[in-house]
Amino acid sequence: MKRKEKKDLEYNLIIKDIINSEEFQKRKNFSHHGKISVYDHSLSVSKKAYKIAKFFKLDYKSAAIAGLLHDFYEKPWQDDKTKYPFFKQHGFTHAQNALINSQKYYHEYLNETIENAILRHMFPLNIVPPKYKVGWIVTLSDKLVSMEVFKYPSMLLLLLGIKIR
Ligand SMILES: [Fe+2]
Ligand SMILES: [Fe+2]
Question: How far separated are the first and last CA of the chain, in Å rounded?
Answer without folding.
Answer: 54
